[in-house]
Amino acid sequence: PSGRLAGKTAIVTGSSSGIGQGIALRFASEGANVVIDFHGHPEAGEETRAKAEASGVKAILVKSDVSKIADTANLVEQAWSQLGGCDVLVNNAGVEKNAAFLDVTEDDYDLVLDTNLKGAFFLTQAFVKRLRDEKMRGCVINMSSVHEDMVFPNFATYCASKGGVRMLMRDLAVELGPMGIRVNNIAPGAISTPINKSLLEDKPKLDALLKNIPLGRSGSVEDVAGLAVYLASDEAAYVTGSTFVVDGGLMRNYHEQ
Ligand code: NAD
């Protein structure tokens, strides 16, 4: 296969839907072999795998709950045993839970923090251990959010998780740089995917949101995937330790107010 990612292999978590699926398919179309990870929907995972393979690359399907350390280790193991190695990890799997701070339960907290932060933390650790053992360089991309920086009332768990991912990325860029491992975040704004279906289908709420987005529309998974291809490619060889915002100007507008 030819393309900007030819010869690379990528693990993309939560890739049976939404942004992760868009990234996995775009990576495949750019020549990368991909590990499709699904949590709850095997059919959607298999459909994504088959579509990726139609681009002429190798694509495997692995079930994993990223909040379980054994599952994260298995994802890395499968990439090496079935695809012969891995260069790129996209920590994309994520959940959000709407609850006023005073109503947040321990279960809510554990679900959001364990998926969004602990998952990214330990999957990256398993990936980097393998890179170290094989003396390979690599690249980690975390799907953060504008809410790694921007407040989101009633989503304190989500903000805490994404704020954690912001500092995790900064710390690892410094700690892993000497190993030739680059670490960056993508911070999407409002992207049309299943995670925010109810908001995007609520016209008054959507209109209020669009008023705050200078480019006047919500984003698509393709808008995010293009940036992910760049960060995973050798064109970004000197890029590490930063968050790249893809939000139609939402965050800038908010900061200027
Ligand atoms: P989505 O719901 O379509 O995707 C989330 C994916 O994560 C799903 O495939 C789901 O199965 C998977 N997942 C959830 N828990 C998991 C677990 N424990 N183990 C493995 N996989 C798990 O929504 P999306 O919008 O594509 O979200 C992808 C990422 O982008 C998330 O991290 C989200 O926080 C982030 N994000 C989305 C938006 C947006 O507007 N859509 C904005 C900012 C950030």
UniProtKB/TrEMBL annotation:
What residue stretches are annotated with the Ketoreductase domain?
8-189
InterPro entries per the UniProt record, alphabetical: KR_dom, NAD(P)-bd_dom_sf, Sc_DH/Rdtase_CS, SDR_fam
**SUPFAM superfamilies per the UniProt record, alphabetical:** NAD(P)-binding Rossmann-fold domains
**Highest taxon in the source lineage:** Bacteria
This entry's Enzyme Commission designation comes to 1.1.1.47
EC main group: oxidoreductase
Keywords in alphabetical order, please. Oxidoreductase
GO molecular function ontology, one term from the record: glucose 1-dehydrogenase [NAD(P)+] activity
What is stated as this protein's family in its record? Belongs to the short-chain dehydrogenases/reductases (SDR) family.
Name listed for the protein in its UniProt record = Glucose 1-dehydrogenase
